[in-house]
Amino acid sequence: MADPLFESMPMPRVLIVEDDVEFRDRYAAILSKDSAFEVVASVGTGADGLAMLDLRKPDILLVDLGLPDLSGIEVIRHASRTLPNCESMVVTVFGDEGHVEFECRHPSFDVNRFDVHQFARPDASVVA
Fold it and tell me: Which of 20, 27, 36, 93 has the most CB atoms around its CB within 10 Å?
């Protein structure tokens, strides 16, 4: 039996900002398979990410730090200023934990590590 509390809650809206097309498509595919999330946009540059934050007003921002035009940190800062209830999740290929921690020195950041390679394999599944 479905829980009426969860049925009445709005579906979290997700914005993906990732310049690597393969990763961006993988993230979108994984989230789209879960009816608990709505992917409102999936873009490849920081400028497009800023525009989609203002236009789509997501609840969750999934962002790469190493974007081609500006830092993902700038995208996160914009989200924090304009959408204070938007949660940000950083995905990055930086293998250097010190680099990631340096980029994310901000009280609102929670740096957690996981194996992103599960998203790169076509046969990968997400385990909660």
Answer: 27
